[in-house]
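Researcher: I'm comparing several assemblies side by side, and this is the next one on my list. It has 764 residues spread over two chains. Same procedure as the others: predict the full complex and return the structure.
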Amino acid sequence: MKFAFTITHKHGTARAGEMVTTHGVVKTPVYMPVGTIGTVKALSSEDVIQTGAQIILGNTYHLHLRPGEALVKKLGGLHQFMNWPKPILTDSGGFQVFSLGQEAGKLSKIDEDGVTFKSHLDGSIHRLTPESSIQIQRALGADIIMAFDECTPIKDEVYVVQAMERTHRWLKRSQEEWQRGIHDQALFGIIQGGDYKHLRQESAAFVNSQDLPGIAIGGVSVGYFMEKTVEHINWVKAIIDPTKPFYTMGVGRDPQDIVDVVMAGVDMFDCVAPTRLARNGAIYHGYLEGSSFDHTSPDRVRFVSEFNRKGRLQIGNAQFRDDNRPIMEECDCATCRAGYSRAYLNHLFKSDELLYYRLSSIHNVRFMVRLCEQLREKIISH
Amino acid sequence: MKFAFTITHKHGTARAGEMVTTHGVVKTPVYMPVGTIGTVKALSSEDVIQTGAQIILGNTYHLHLRPGEALVKKLGGLHQFMNWPKPILTDSGGFQVFSLGQEAGKLSKIDEDGVTFKSHLDGSIHRLTPESSIQIQRALGADIIMAFDECTPIKDEVYVVQAMERTHRWLKRSQEEWQRGIHDQALFGIIQGGDYKHLRQESAAFVNSQDLPGIAIGGVSVGYFMEKTVEHINWVKAIIDPTKPFYTMGVGRDPQDIVDVVMAGVDMFDCVAPTRLARNGAIYHGYLEGSSFDHTSPDRVRFVSEFNRKGRLQIGNAQFRDDNRPIMEECDCATCRAGYSRAYLNHLFKSDELLYYRLSSIHNVRFMVRLCEQLREKIISH
């Protein structure tokens, strides 16, 4: 297994580091765009590289259903299949199958051994277990793979305990499957425990004790509710090995979210929101201010925008109809640099033209990647 | 008006030339991709330039309805609006309003002065006349503009005569409007006359007598029915000024169609099919053979393909599911050069992923552009 992580700089609890993988070095903190089904939606591999993205995430659930891991493996693995030469992280499929479970008709069902679920594509029945999740991820060939976990709800302590304990048993099974044969991928474990401090800490201690290459924190609360996310990170960070990469799953919807988790000591995060928001007409706009990573400092690093707290402009709004400026004057994304105007993007968006999705996604992904580059620079230069 | 056309080489009736416009030189024969509503669907301006396309077509009907010529003019004209630095040709809107007239509910109505039509977007009532078509095209700012004509049906001689004569009167009115104020765009007239030799020849003589910068041939038969298209070209080509650029409207669906019209002496053609076919899973594959532009020669230039007469593979077919090769080994389009495989395109197409539309459109446009480059080379090197 080619995997190493080195923290090169610290500023408060924020960290800058370098992660070495089979497909290259990743400088942290790092935002990982999501390439659900072998493509970061609307973008080519060249586009994603041009945004400066260093690593992308692939979804085991989606790739298992279509085109299937056997085909991907036959064609040389996910890197070759999607023509992406840099590192890839795959999730375990857990998040998607449990999301399905919460939808009408209960599309998934959990037992001690694993999860049975219906495909959202054709209703066919599938099953994921810790073993099969790892086998699928091995066939896909990502650089970093995730243990099969249950994306636990926030409340209902009795259930959260059950789910956490099952997740811990599944982590051991994931790890055993990973250790069978060649294990040239880096396996990360996932801390669960809902909204309960003692459970999060118990889970952190357990995951930490497995001595895996990396540690993640997940669950329904993480990413969706940023105050809780930061609180959960703070509960566990003294417990986990500080030399390991720490990954917050599903974080990166609002630019400030990235500032928050980096300030709390997180190294990696992924989120579909930047591309999904772009497709829905919400385009990032704003800047970092401040230089301190102490969140109580008046000069603390923070995101500011002339548009709204979330730093998004709605490109479909009438105010942009005749606005000849690029999305952001100072932006170095390919869309802004090429000179595409807000007026043109407004026209493409309202006309539902395919080009719109690409141009806006390029901007939003570059925006989040650049934010990480700037945070890293602030950590290093302090 | 900056416009000049020089035929530099001939081979049989096939010609190679150079057309000078305000936005640069166009080497002919030339395929013009269609950028309906200010975008060649799924492609950015950079993508289109990378295909080698030298000039694109914009649709007056679509741009008039959305975003409207007043806005485009305010924002600096169509070139600046869509970030396209090279030449543009706009059609007159005639084709679209008459197509609407043939649809259920009769969305358009012709009178001597012009055409009243309902918007396909919102049912609102609009009107185009020769004068307003030229005014819209002036506001859009294309390098080449088209006279307002009626896209005449193939049969019904009585009607075809009426429509042709009205088109001739509209040509004079288009020309008068064009000559008012600054006329820095090149106006082309359009030959109509349906499937009637004497009418096509009468129309050709009339259009030729107006001494415009260029001459086009249109009508329902042109482009859709290639045998008729070539026949119609042959009927008129001795009548029209051989020093003028000759443009066949709507030609370029099948690769052989381009060979046919170039062999018949055409310099310019446009077609939405290459991008539309791509989006529907039909991808060009094949080569030119032969070197003679005499269509009776056994060594005549012709298009051949291992797939079918039309030279298309259906990327959604199961045979491509595990095919790791690029669409065409020898293809120099950005999609094939980057290494995207048939299997990956099959997966993206079946998953309805946005990236599919762009990758396939890049290939199909480059394919048609390259075909023209190769035909030009054959004409020149003979």
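Model: For your comparison table: Chain A has a mean pLDDT of 95.
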